[in-house]
Amino acid sequence: MTQQPLNPDFDATVLGYPRIGADRELKKALEAHWAGKISLDELHAAAGQVQLADLTRLAGLGLDAAGGALPGDVAYYDQVLETTAALSAVPSRFSGVIGERIGTAEAFVLARGDEANAPLELTKWFDTNYHYLVPEIGPGTAFVADPERLVANHAAHAAAGFELRPTLVGPLTYLLLAKAEDGAPEGFSPLERLDDAVAAYASLLAALGAAGVKLVQLDEPGLVTEEGAKLAADGSTVTRVYSALAAVQSAPRLFVTSGYGTAGDPARPGHVQGELARAGVAVVHADLVRGAAPAAAHLGELNGATLVAGVVNSRNIWRNRLGESLAALRTLQAEVTEAGGALAVGTATSLQHVPHTVAAETALPEHLPAWLAFADEKVAEVVTLAKGLREGDAAIAAELAADAEAHAARAAFAGTSVAAVRERLAALTPEDLERADAEERRAAQAAALGLPPLPTTTIGSFPQTAEVRKARAGARSGALSEAEYEAFLKAEIERVVRFQEELGLDVLVHGEAERNDMVQYFAENFDGYAPTTRGWVQSYGSRSTRPAILWGDVSRPRAFTVPWISYAASLTEKPLKGMLTGPVTILAWSFVRDDQPLEVSAQQVALALRDEIEDLQAAGIGIIQVDEPALRELLPLRAEAQPDYLRWSVDSFRLATAGADTATQIHTHLCYSEFGEVVGAIDALDADVTSIEAARSRMEVTGDLAEFGFSRGIGPGVYDIHSPRVPSTEEIDELLAEALKRLTPEQLWVNPDCGLKTRAYPETEASLRHLVEAAAKARAAIAASV
Ligand code: MET
Ligand SMILES: [Zn+2]
Fold it and tell me: Ranges for the Cobalamin-independent methionine synthase MetE N-terminal domain (predicted)?
């Protein structure tokens, strides 16, 4: 066994750690502060406690507290916002309310808006379900280094013996993720401001160095995108920027990470790391999970730098295959050492995408915990791998044995591969994805449903009132018996049905009161799926979600939505639309198994949904909506991988829905993204009616769809449900008129942007009244014009 010298600072690290606190303490403190219940000082103290607990845990798990192995990824709301604050990059539209400096209070104004200003836009961070606040950059945006918070955070923990490496989004990624502010000249790109931003980063580094910081982490995952890759050709922008930053007098050493894929040209993995090292960056990182391991040819350029090999998956919750990782690391180590560099073991990205610890889960099926690794278990894996690399297999013999055993048990477990599910998949034929001709369907559905033109409907959920949440919690804790809970839900369904009838909506829904979350509800009712109890993952700001774990072959033991939906239908003469969540969204918002292609898991979920649709139809439900809000979300970052994704994702929707009768109207619903780029896929879903978020973009997507020749039903949202604001009837009139410029009256449906579950009743009632009124006016106008 070779005894190579590893990194002089550390041989194991993680790029970041969940920031919300093991018990979501930061969420509670933030919301208490926003509600005026605790002061800013109390918030800082609470956040400091959370960070101290995290650092103590990380050091306890074996990361070198004094050697720079601990990430200083402090962020109360969002890591991109922290960088905006460190650069004092105040968007012009806030210049009246925010001075030159973005302190914590000012950062919250950017994050949450105020009476006069909408907050910064939230957008998905790469292909994750984390959302960051989009910087708004213009030709005049000031970039002024404000190191105060970073310095204070470093100093606070240095005193306790934790040598943090302050973490910022790197300048290239920061500007790649920014948008041109309103009023910037046509064609302006935030990257035009690169030199000014780099100057501010240089001042930040100088100040951090002066404060005794030894290592700073700059995250550059933007380099894995198509646009970012262009900045990373040899002799490129990457070289220019990082040569400048590495040359800053008395600056700390730099640690530049990528993550979420292969940085730069995917055919030349490692060249960006070589380029960074040549520029003077001391520690570079490569994502070995989503990305490819650096090619030996490029490691030659490392030249004394350290490569952090991101071998532990920080996006899933599965235990690492330690034996395989160790073998890959040994190969890399030989190449890196040969090149005069050093190797350290790390994670593919920050661990912010996984929950704190498996140990907190008390209700998982018995077989599952041993297969899993959340953040803490992943830290332990990184430490174990580094030890194995340093001291040889014998030093980690117990861990290797436990690992082999867990993986063998997982492979052999009955639910991992279920013959009945496999046989059903193997027997599928192309006809299983085909429905009758769209025109034939349209005629059959028109006859069966008898809807007016411009039918009005909602997207499914109605306000989840405190009573609804309380009843659900009561059912979970046992405070409410099964019979009591059922009676409660039936009463709630009846109330929602009567409410919709009174409003005069044309197609009713049951309101989804029984669902805590549109994906978790399905996970709870499918075999092969397990919800967690404490597995919170930050989605944005103080918000977290609790993705369920898809661990085995999926099937549906019994119909579960049918009782509620058919009960709702029994209460009304109007058509009632059944609600399901589609396969892609179910996968996108879960932790999925890593031992088979996503495509196969999608097919299994699709077949389970197909069974539910058959049962809904048999119960007399003539309209069924299968929501796919995450369709765009899983689209791969790299263009070359997109067609294959679009093929299987569309096919999984069709597999779920194509068993429906010709007269059954299949709807889908899309939101949370811009769908302009994927209209071809939306068309290929072959849904009879598609509702899609559109109010904020003023019906923009209707243009894309019309241009594409989309001919089936379409309900562009006319009411933005993301805020309590009530749209006026006139406003909805205008949106409908706008939509009718491009869509035919036979095509157009009238509905809100999305479900109403986060709204309260007063604004919901007022908004839906205006929506029904506007639809009636538009109908009358159409009738008068023929
Ligand atoms: C995020 S899409 C939500 C769709 C779901 N049917 C609802 O109305 O809540
Ligand atoms: Zn939606």
Answer: 13-335
